[in-house]
Amino acid sequence: MSLKIGLLGKKLGMTQVFADDGESIPVTVIQTGPNVVIGTRTKERDGYSALVLGFDEKPVRLANKPELGAVKESGLKPQRFIREIRLAPEEVAKFTVGQAINAGDVFEVNIPVDVEGWSKGKGYQGVIKKHHMKGMTRAHGTHEYFRHGGSIGCRLTPQRVHKGKRMAGQMGNEKVTVQNLQLLRILAEEGVILVRGSIPGAANEYVVVSKAATRTVYKRKGMGKEEVRSKNPLKASKKAAAGRG
Length: 245
What we know:
6-stranded antiparallel beta barrel
């Protein structure tokens, strides 16, 4: 398990910003501040160390007893979104119960981040939409089987349907983590961060943003590589004619 600091947030939507060189960059706006520490987990007491974070205050009149009990130790208002962030004991010791944490306290610009959220639910879908199957031909003699899944049997051996068989079923509405996205900007006054690209979920859905588990430096795919010139003179002349030589 990767013990990386993270924050809770809410996906507000997507927009675009412009880089210094004029590049138009699609970004997702995530509200991440402030997060509040409503509790801690220690190895001596709980068997593991973690930070319990809360995000988005909830009126006391709408909270139930478990939600009130979760913030009883900290004396804070109930929170709509609560998650545990696994950290090393020395990292947990840096925070105190009741402390407010903002994106600028734990993140830096241009670092890679992982974003965890719930994908949009698509309901019960067939094999063409869910698994991109081709379907039957719309020719003479084909009747009512244009979008069917087809046979799923497996003859005498093993006389059962294989596990993992691609069939119709529930699509979406599952936990998805997108890794190694660029944290493009931190807008401290607005309490939001801008992440390059798209993230799971619809607008106003809760997400967890954490430092990337597999990388420490963000690197765009395909950037920084020198193009290999073709030894074929015909291809080289075509590229020169297109202005790419």
